[in-house]
Amino acid sequence: MKIAKTAIALSALAVLGLAGRVEAQDAGTLRLMTGPQGGVWVPLGGSLKNLWEKNIAGVSVQTLPGAGIANVRAIDEGKAEIGFGNSISTVDGINGVAPFPRKTTNVCQMATLYPQYFQVVVNADAGINSVKDFKGKGLAVQTRGNTAEVITKQLLEVHGLKYEDMRTSFLPSYTDAAELLKNGQAQVFTLGTTIPASSIMDLGTSRDVKLLDLKDSIEGMRKLNAGYYPIELPANTYPKQTAAVTKIGYAAHLIVSCKLPEQRVYEMMKTIQANFRDLVLINKAMDGVGPKEMAVDIGVPFHPGATKFYAEHGIKAGS
């Protein structure tokens, strides 16, 4: 977790009179990996881009589509500098667990943001009341290797099923998946995101759907990855959803290249904290999150710039 530190002179701030503006260490474009269309990472990424470009002089941010596992690999391989991640898959990368071909060595923790919900939505008229009822039905899932796809495969495994037992469509976006349920080409849609998911909200305005309770899957899922935990999806999160249901939870977080300068990551963290309400307006699940919550240990080594930020708030990162 110890990474070489890069110093930066801050006295230039006073000389240039940029008291309300953070000085970047050097010019250059930062590539930020977001998520699939229909998920919350895309608008959150756009907001972070605007905040960092506005408040950190010389910084330009390029947002790129991605997904939890793809983002970890992109940062580790030097194809991006920042990205959203899911705790369960990021830890798998650090440990070199499939689908990662080897241990990642260039992925550092920046901040834990909010809980993620792995959700299963089905058409109300499909006669599906449990995962075992998926057999012979149409399943819409993310492309292979993405976090929600990996979780879906594990969920099927827990219940003695595999993709070949159903008509499975691998799709690049949640929006595309929802369209298949709208027109009846699929009856089951799996996704991992915050709540309410815009793709499910949109689907629910077109036809009656129901959210499948996954309480009976938690024990088996935890045997595959200890990072899973039960999380309640409150009643009325979606149209006509009158009862709370249990979903599979994990954490969404920001990850960065361990090679980014300490001062730059520190400045990025300061900007996030100073403008956190802008992010809460996009994702209400982040309401109430502060430095203490962002610094929680999820098994990913912290970047020194993030550690410096948390220390200023009297918090030991990872404690």
What does this structure look like?
- By secondary structure, the chain is α/β, with parallel strands linked by helices.
- It has two domains: 12-114 and 251-312, D-Maltodextrin-Binding Protein, domain 2; 116-250, Periplasmic binding protein-like II (D-Maltodextrin-Binding Protein, domain 2).
- The chain has helices at 12-16, 41-55, 68-76, 87-95, 147-158, 174-182, 198-206, 218-224, 262-274, 276-282, 291-294, 304-312; strands at residues 22-33, 56-64, 82-86, 107-123, 138-142, 167-171, 188-193, 209-211, 229-233, 245-257.
- Strands 1, 2, 3, 4, 5, 6, 7, 8, 9 and 10 form a ten-stranded mixed β-sheet that branches.
- The longest helix is centred in the N-terminal third of the chain and has 15 residues, at 41-55.
- The radius of gyration is 20 Å and the shape is globular.
- Residues 1-27 have low confidence and may be disordered.
Overall structural class, as computed from helix and strand content, comes to alpha/beta
Total number of strands: 10
**Count of DSSP helices?**
12
* Count of the domains: 2
- Cα distance, first to last residue? 14 Å
Q: Which value, in Å, is the CA radius of gyration?
A: 20 Å
The CATH superfamily of the largest domain is: Periplasmic binding protein-like II
Proportion of helical residues: 25-40%
Average pLDDT rating: 89
Low-confidence stretches: 1-27
CATH topology of the largest domain: D-Maltodextrin-Binding Protein, domain 2
Give me the CATH architecture of the largest domain, please. 3-Layer(aba) Sandwich
CATH class of the largest domain: Alpha Beta
Shape: globular
Strand content: 25-35%
The biggest beta sheet is recorded as: 10 strands, mixed
Order of helices and strands: HEHEHEHEEHEHEHEHEEHHHH
